[in-house]
Amino acid sequence: MKREQGLLLGVVAILGLMGWSLKGDAGAGARGSRQARAKDLILDALGPADPVVQLDGHASNRDPFVRPLPDSPLELLALPAPPLDELPSLLPPPLPAGSPASWSQHLFAFPATPLGDIDDLIDLDAGADQGMDQEGADSGFGSDEVGTDEATQVTLSSDQDEFGAVYDSIRLDAIRTFYGFILDDDRYEIQVGDPITFQQVDAETGEEMFAPQTYQAGEYEAFALARTLRNQIEYKVREMRGASPGRVVEMREHVDWLLANAIQQPIAFGYAEEHARWLIQVQPDHVLNWLTLGTVWERTFRFDEAFTLYATLAGEELPESAPDLGLELQEGRFAAAEKARLQVGMARILRRLGADAEAEALLRHANQERPAGDAATLVALGSVLLDRGQPAAAMLHFERVTNMSPPRNSPLALANGLARGRCAMALGRFSEAADVFADTLRADTASPQAKDAASGRIAALYGGGDFATAVQEAEDAIETYGSSAQLLYLRGIANAADGGAAAEVVRDLRAAAASAPLDAAPALAALAFWYDRLGLDSEASAALDQALDQSPDLYYARYLRARWAVRDGELESASEDLRRLVAEAPRCVGVLAELAWLLHAQDLFPASEVAYRRAELELPAWARSSSTAPQWADLALRRGLNFAESQEWARAAEQFLAAKSFDPTLYAAQNGLARVAYAQDDLTQAVSEFAYLQDNLRQNQEDPQFLYAQSWQGRITAHARLRLWTDDFSGSRLRPGWEILLKAKLGVEPRLESGHLSIRGEHSGKGRTRATREVPALHFQSFGGDFEVGARHSGDAGLLIALETRNQRQQWLFQVFRDRDGRLVYQWKQGAKEERQPVNIPFPTDQPVRIEFDINREANTPELRVRFNGEEIYRGAAAQLKSSAASLVYGMFVDTANALPVHASLDNVEAIYAKP
């Protein structure tokens, strides 16, 4: 007892001494630290041999206390993009069109499909007939008065106006009036009482009746020529040939009228030059008379003569090759006050010849010579700048002319109003443009510019998105000014954008193209667009080809060609077109959107983002405050999908939220948010997003977005339960779970050899040896491994999956093996049913092959797929795996028909199964 007490005291003493020592060390350290703070801290520089530098940091993040897991979760699924509708498109632009950048505000949209079918068209050709400009036919010639002598003019009955508009007529008495043609050469000089040679026709059919007959004085009471534009021109010309010098202003207006109608009646060009030369002879000191002659030459494409005329009168130098005009010209006759007007004419011709830069320089020089400013020069200079893509600079000149306050109904003020309206449209200021065109129209509703002003206002309303008002004003303008090609075009595109009748849209656009056959490209391109919306593919393609044939540089037609090429998978040609279009109009959102999506399809995600970012800069102010802007929502959605492909998940989520703010019903964005949440390994949030979408669409369960959400919610939920189990047999013993003894009764035991699970030896008789694992049948997903058969092996050897009960009763078996003859065979058994099928693929010895079994459980009936070295050799239903309560056994086997050598091995096993 004393010995134990002594030992205890000794231990206590030792412990006390140790504690005292530790306390002393701590105190010394504390004292030392105080002393150290009084000195500078100096450390030796770390050299290349410093041990800290040479530490291996590869395992620095590894937690040594983490318990190894028997399996691991699978990598996240790669969710595809949700289903998308087609891109928003650019509606056909108005005329005047403005700049492509201005189309982005209201014409970049999801277009409504016109109602009905084009088979509803009635009297299709009537539109083309109406396309003839009736301004000349109805202006000043709508009365029944004919002849040049007012005393001899005769009034026909109003109930005969319909035939009188087409045919000449002769009235024999109060009852009989014949229609046909007056055949006399001097038909425009005939007076009542002169002999008339008349060819009667059937007014209903136009067929000639009888032979021509000559009526003498007393045999008829009156006659009248048909109220056609040609007859009106002839009468008016004969009237003005007798004009006095005091009617110079009226004569200039008459020449303008002839030029306006000369396209329909080319004979008017000759009469216009005749009267213009008369003006020079009567009043040679007025520059407007000379300009009138120059204008006639311009309209007849005699540009050299017109330019020479203007330059000579303005005192400008001309080359020796300048043409001889055959006129007595005084060089520099108007080099002072009226020079600017002549320079405007010169610039106009330069522009017609494509020399816009030279025209601009000439006009700028002319403007500098007139410090006070010349209105005509400013209008011309502004027009050049506008057409050269500088609307902001052009607007300054137009506003300056407005501030000069020329008479509101003067031709110059009207021209400035039209140009200013076009400029406002190019700047995207559609409300301002509509007001400017309206003011110009009110200034003189009877002027030649009135119809252009009305057309400009309709175009501004359409460009500003007010399609319904544009349709109504187009109807009114056609009623007032006749069915011109421009008005028919505007009514057609506005009616289509407003969701009008397909038949009316097609009729108007066809009529517009027929009315201006030399300038039909815009109408044909618009027709192609709406044909495509109506599903008339061949008609759309033909119309677009015609538009491009007539005008290869038409911006909108080229846009349609590129858009349809993307849709048809012709990405290379589409890329070339779109890049050129963007270079020409880098602010046109419709083209930027097409290019961005094309780059996305080509996996050029950074380049696609550049295009999307440029498009976003054009976001109009109205879209920021609107309750819905589906076209901009679609752009944000696709930009988000582009970020998702680059795995920039935070930026993708930002774009999807922006898309929902533009259009709360854009459920593809909701699916995009779910996809982002899942990619960020937030399964709960992803499932919530999918569930929220399905709740919103519970009344429309056929919606593609509903089906996407439903499908992928189930997939990711099921996928989250799956675990990956692998075994490369690299240890010194088999991992738990391998069953190697139950079937090893023939003298050969599966064992671990050289990093493989091997079955090698010699069977003692007929039978099978196998090495397997098992999982609940409903949890099994896939199994695969590298399997090798040795050259000494005799018999069958391969991999299997099987359903077995607890007492090892086999319910179903599927195995892939190399048979005794060296063939690749798959075999399945179920009760008495069996199928054994050789596969025409080599199965080598002493060389590993990859065999994989995979169950697709998404279908109502599970589907088994088997691959051999990546090539599918079997696919079929496996109803046994749907609800079986048995275990699924998987692994390797060897089978011999006698006492024979066996040699097979298994490596790199992968199995996927669901967590219980």
DSSP strand content: 15-25%
Q: Percent of residues in helical segments?
A: 40-55%
Instruction: Tell me the major beta sheet.
Output: 9 strands, antiparallel
Helix count? 33
The total beta strand count reads: 22
The dominant shape is elongated
Overall radius of gyration: 46 Å
- Uncertain segments: 25-62, 122-159
Distance between the termini: 62 Å
Mean pLDDT across the residues is 84
Find the structural class using helix and strand composition: alpha+beta
Defining traits:
nine-stranded antiparallel beta sheet; 916 residues; 46% helix; six-stranded antiparallel beta sheet; 33 helices
Question: Care to describe what's here?
Answer:
The protein is α+β, with helices and mostly antiparallel strands. The chain is 46% helix and 15% strand. The chain contains 33 helices and 22 strands. The strands form 4 sheets. Strands 1, 9, 10, 11, 13, 18, 19, 20 and 22 form a 9-stranded antiparallel beta sheet that branches. Strand 19 and strand 20 form a beta hairpin.
